[in-house]
Amino acid sequence: MCYKSNIAEWQFASDITDENERLKLEQSLVAARFEKEAWKNITSFNWQPFTDPDLKRKFKLLSVLGPSALPEDKLTQYRKSIDAMEKIYSTAKICSFANPGDCGMNLDPEITEKMSKSRNFDELKHVWQQWHEQSGGKMRHHYEKFVQLSNEAAQMNNFSDTGAYWLRNYESDTFKEDIEGLWQTIKPFYLQLHAYVRAKLRAHYGEDKVPKDQPIPAHLLGNMWAQSWGNIDDLVTPYPGKSSIDVTPEMLKQGYTPKKMFEMSEEFFTSMGLLPTPPEFWSGSIIEKLVGKEMVCHASAWDFCNGKDFRIKQCTKVNMEDFIVVHHEMGHIQYFLQYKNLPLVYREGANSGFHEAVGDSLALSVQTTKHLKEIGLLDKSTPTDHEATINYLLATALDKIAFFPFAYIMDKWRWDVFDGSVTSADYNCHWWKLREEYQGIRSPVTRSEVDFDPGAKYHIAANVEYIRYFVSFVIQFQFYKSLCVTAGQYDPHNPSQPLHECDFYRNKEAGAKLGAMLAMGSSRPWPEAMRAVTGQDRMDANAFREYFKPLEVWLIAKNKELGEPVGWNSGGLNCQKNPPPTSTTQHPPPVTQPVGPKSGGPTVFLPHGAWILVAFYSLLNLVV
Ligand code: BJ2
Ligand code: ZN
Q1: Is 500 marked as binding a ligand?
Q2: pLDDT at 582
Q3: Cβ contacts of residue 314 below 8 Å, gap of 6+?
Q4: Which of 87, 267, 323, 585 is deepest in the core (most CB within 10 A)?
């Protein structure tokens, strides 16, 4: 059943047509009937008093049914709302800034490339705004429906809401507090990075565009969502002309292909004694964008549950960023391979964050100057002195540190939506409140509740929980550090062997250690899996701090020297409930009478008839 469902989903994701959408839905209903039946069998046992811990764990995991608990008509609506959002996201197109008549720009590759390479303020703003309009802007009503049904499903599974349902995966009563604690540890460092980057952007774009003590305009950070900032390394690098780890030009010069990138990633895994991918991986995967088809280009890794078929779907471009994504996805495949012989119920990560961390931990080793020299992507004479080190760590921080507040708010926003503390009347402004408060960024254009900017990010449109990546970005440094110690590549007491220079390529001991953890799947609570590699049984930001220590010291000194303010003043949120009059969309006449959210419910007085407006636009969207 798992195989059949995956095939139907793959078919849709790699060839978005109405027919494939229908077949996927049909199969998901068949699977739901089966799951419900299995769930009835499981829960007919009084398993709580079982004394065999393994048997009890299996029953516990299997006793949560998930969305299949919904009655079939509602399950159909639930699936349809997610499919509709994923389709909108994956097929959205915008018009070019330079050639307004060219309206065939896709997120992948054209828009992504513009966001990363353009340094034209107005062009970036145009692309940013258009993307948000064409993706998130078209899915608000689907999201509202989705939230309602998803919560209904969670409640049928005895969870208070979808947020609580998601958190079960982490098997901890203190998970949210632990995440907040980690964020508090990382935050001072983030603020320093933010201040430094803002100063550099101000120098490039001017004080009027990037004011000194304000949030950074969200479209200037090299990435549509301002989630990782590595693409603006050229603008912010501390010692220009010194050395750069962006080996994209070299990859292009050497004629790298997507295939070669995947082969090299696989070779890194096998060099550590980890498992090779089977032939089915190479014949089944899609590693380049298909011509003449609409597809979900967002990269993903798939386990078809039959122990043979594992695939990646990625519209791979030949550049360093995608080279790292290749390793990320190959990390998922390695996990799938390692636990393929476990019972199906245990073929999951120790928790979702573990699954995300595997490839990234290895990629930290791949991207070291040492390794890039070894594989011929970096000149052997590239220095590793203090200035080069700061350049290297800053480039890495742009991806790894900038990411934390983004990863946090992705689910903070959804936790607030799911538990009802934020309703659809505040979806978008709440999003921007969090964006400003945590990331210190601001929308380049005034937003309103007609927009739905969270939906402009894949995981919200496709309903993928996100805190897993926050967890991953913490624990990947714990894994990296431990594997480095195992490989004899890191000694905390030896300054000539700093953590960021560790490369465990070809190290079988490190590979064996990691492999043993992966082979556990989800058969044991995650602290045990973590202990197998790190000797620790909790998430800990210390490895991370250790890795970046020289940069943290440098940034603090640099910001002081520049007299840069750290942090930002709000100066008012750039989001209004109602659309601003200057907006290009047409608006209905304002309605001012009080409106109740539901008939029979309490009458709520909302300013400027917000409810009516939101409802009107939802309807309009639906019709369009
Ligand atoms: C590029 C990457 C995801 C991933 C895809 C899409 C959603 C889930 C899977 C799962 C894996 C599994 C991604 C990378 C870091 C930050 C984040 C982002 N795509 N997924 N089937 N990333 O995690 O690989 O492949 O657990 O089975 O979204 O925001 O880009
Ligand atoms: Zn992943």
Answers
A1: no
A2: 60
A3: 258, 286, 287, 297, 299, 300, 322, 325, 326, 329
A4: 323
CATH dotted code for 159-569: 1.10.1370
* Sequence letter at residue 264: M
pLDDT of residue 432: 98
Beta bridge partners of 217: 442
Residues in the chain: 624
Residue with tokens 């070894």: 374
Q: Whose CA is nearest to atom 26 of ligand 1?
A: 355
Positions marked active-site: 329, 459
Q: Mention every residue, 6+ apart, whose C-beta is less than 8 A from residue 217.
A: 125, 209, 210, 441, 442, 443, 444
pLDDT at residue number 618: 47
Between the CA of 271 and the centroid of ligand 2 the distance, in Å, is 22
Report residues whose beta carbon is within 6 angstroms of any ligand 1 atom.
Answer: 227, 298-301, 325, 328-329, 332, 355-356, 464, 469
The annotation status of 123 as a binding-site residue, yes or no, is no
Residue 247 and residue 372 in contact, taking contact as beta carbons nearer than 8 Å: yes
Cα 564 to its chain centre, rounded Å, is 30
Query: Among the atoms of ligand 1, which is closest to the Cα of residue 314?
Result: 1
* Smallest CA separation from ligand 1 atom 15, residue: 469
Q: Is 328 annotated as a binding residue?
A: yes
pLDDT at site 377: 98
Query: What's the CA-to-centroid distance between 508 and ligand 2, angstroms?
Result: 24
> Could you give the residue ranges of the DSSP H alpha helices within 519-599?
526-534, 542-562
Instruction: Using the atom order of ligand 1, give the atom closest to the CA of residue 303.
Output: 27
CA–CA separation, 434 vs 409, rounded Å?
6
Four-residue CA torsion sign, 28, 33, 38, 39: positive
Cis preceding linkage at 527, omega within 30: no
Distance (angstroms) between ligand 1 centre and the Cα of 14 equals 16
Domain boundaries, given as residue ranges, for the chain: 159-569
* E-state strands within 232-375: 300-303, 310-313
pLDDT at site 245: 84
Spatial CA neighbour of 518 closest among 300, 309, 362, 306: 362
Pair 239, 392: CB distance under 8 Å? no
Helices (H), 422-525: 427-434, 458-461, 467-486, 508-518
For 53-99, the pLDDT digits (tens) are: 999 999 999 999 999 999 999 999 999 999 999 999 999 999 999 99
The low-confidence residues of the chain, meaning pLDDT below 70, are 582-624
The Å distance, Cα 619 to ligand 1 centre, comes to 32
480 is in an annotated binding site: no
